[in-house]
Specification:
Helix content: 40-55%
Order of helices and strands: HEHHEHHEHEHEHHEEHEHH
CATH class: Alpha Beta
CATH topology: TIM Barrel
Shape: globular
Largest sheet: 8 strands, parallel, barrel
Strand order of the largest sheet: 1-2-3-4-5-6-7-8
Mean pLDDT: 94
Oligomer: single chain
Number of domains: 1
Number of helices: 12
């Protein structure tokens, strides 16, 4: 009997964006947010916070992005809490991007990838954010593992924090920025393993407040999802979507965390629904 083929992450992300629009709800249980939600600053509080956020997001957006560090700070109990949040998200069919920004070499990176991208692992997610600044080639086995399980990877390419500019915008002798080189290498990988007309499963993290010209970014080709933090509390708005991303707009996953979570548990669902409408009004203009 033929086994069912697992759809690639690139195509699943594409379908989620088509169905729900670009909004991705971040799940960041900051101490201050836990307090404002009348929850303890503990693993139990983070668990309750995460479960409520998942329930509010389910059926309203296609993707969520738990920030791993805010669970990790509670040690093993925090990871147990995160496992419960991830399991609930899988039950609701939300796509989960684990924002862990792992990056290393050899078997160490393989172990990170296995933790987050292996089907049925305790920390299983649909995609993982990774750091390429030890070399994109150091991530080759992570890309291969992700492809094997129908998972995705988001490679940091151009972040909006000012400290990043010195490294990410440095130019080679050929005049290419580090960020553009990362996009070129990852796009080359996608081109080799992706069927024509489909989206690559290795996407990019490009901040919503990044000036593409100043960062000397090149086009993402073949298409792949672009995870864009910076909407909401960091200043970018739904109305900025086309101006910031141009022809790449259909690929953008607009990540918002504090701007949504600060509404509190009672208003969370309504806030998500209102934000979804704002993005839908501008994303297909």
């Amino acid at each position: 009997m033929n086994q069912p083929v697992t759809p690639s992450f690139g195509e699943r992300a594409r379908r989620a964006l088509d169905a729900y629009g670009p909004l991705c709800v971040g799940i960041d249980p900051h101490a201050a947010l836990l307090t404002s939600w009348n929850l303890p600053d503990s693993a139990a509080g983070a668990r309750e916070f995460g479960l409520r956020a998942v329930d509010a997001a389910a059926g309203r957006v296609g993707l969520i992005k738990p920030q791993v560090s805010f669970f990790e700070r509670f040690g093993s109990a925090g990871f147990t809490a995160l496992e419960d949040v991830l399991a609930r998200a899988r039950q609701t069919e939300l796509l989960v991007i684990a924002d862990a920004k792992r990056g290393d070499i050899g078997t160490t990176m393989d172990a990170y990838a296995a933790a987050w991208l292996t089907p049925d692992s305790p920390l299983e997610a649909d995609a993982l954010t990774v750091n390429p600044f030890l070399g994109v080639g150091a991530l080759d086995s992570t890309f291969a593992l992700a492809q094997l399980g129908g998972k995705g990877v988001f490679v940091l390419a151009a972040t909006s924090n000012p400290e990043a500019a010195l490294v990410q915008r440095s130019r080679s002798a050929m005049g290419e920025s580090v960020s553009s080189t990362i996009i070129a290498e990852v796009s080359g990988h996608n081109a080799r393993v992706t069927e024509a007309g489909k989206w690559g499963s290795v996407g990019f993290v490009i901040g919503a407040t990044v000036d593409w010209g100043e960062a000397a970014l090149i086009a993402v080709d073949p298409p792949a999802a672009i995870l864009a933090p910076g909407f909401g509390a960091q200043g970018a708005t739904p109305a900025d979507l086309h101006e910031r991303f141009g022809s790449h707009t259909p690929m953008v996953i607009a990540a918002e965390s504090r701007s949504i979570l600060s509404a509190g548990p009672d208003a969370l669902t309504a806030t998500i629904e209102a934000r979804v409408r704002q993005y839908q009004e501008v994303s297909h203009v």
